[in-house]
Design brief:
alpha/beta; 49% helix; binds zinc ion; lyase; 286 residues; FBA_II; binds glyceraldehyde-3-phosphate; EC 4.1.2.13; Class_II_FBP_aldolase; 11 helices; single chain; TIM Barrel; 8 strands
Amino acid sequence: PLVPTGELITRAAAARAAVAAFNVITLEHIEAVVAGAETAGSPVVLQVSENAVKFRYGRLLPLARAAVTAAERAAVPVGLHLDHVRSDDLLRQAPDAGFGSVMYDAARLSYADNLAATRAAADWAHAQGLWIEAELGEIGGKDGRPPLDAHAPGARTDPDRARDFVAGTGVDALAVAIGSAHAMTSRTAVLDHALLTRLSAVSSVPLVLHGSSGVPDEQLVAAVGEGIAKVNVGTALNVAMTGAIREFLAARPEAVDSRAYLGVGREAMAREVGRIIGVLSRADGG
Ligand code: G3H
Ligand code: ZN
């Protein structure tokens, strides 16, 4: 069934566990994430980013409708989340499109501007009954910027600011820059576990890890124990799907039916979803 994302994250945070949140761009992605979560028997978050909406000719509804339908029919609880929203116009479409939560991304702005914009977004979101996540620090690796930028200590989330930002904006969760970066195709990130522990100690809300595709499994497990309650994964699913499709087409140059390769890609993606949920479940119960 479709459930409010906030309920999933709140329950996970209370248990020092984490919910996996997977980015979806196509119908096959939605099907793969739901199938992988059903096989694992775990709740999951389906998230649609502003960049995914841009790919869909700027239209949210076609993908949103598919995600709502898939969530409603799923055998496990599914939350729907609008991810990395910068456009106020897109933000305002979230409730009617069926989303229970949003990530408002003003992290590129100065601290003062991020705070003001995020507070306004949070006030609006809460009036709509939406759960809202925001980012402080710069996780990096989006919009073609080199992922390694985020590994610079200067881009990381400062604990004093994190405490003030959460209090000043009223957000329900905080995305932190602790050494992961978006769009990494190998698991070579090195998380700053000491910083994460300090951030958890000062934050009154659950913390979110972005760019989790580049984080080695053991570090993911450790990060959940240190206070990460939502683990965002996008690139790893594309690595699995595209790799399987590339291999299939190389072996069958005569193939033309798109169901043949999309089906192979979807299965590979569903397996990766199940694998990642399995890794996170190792953190359950300590
Ligand atoms: O918000 C989405 C995530 O941060 C995904 O990052 O594609 O590097 O796994 P990733
Ligand atoms: Zn992200």
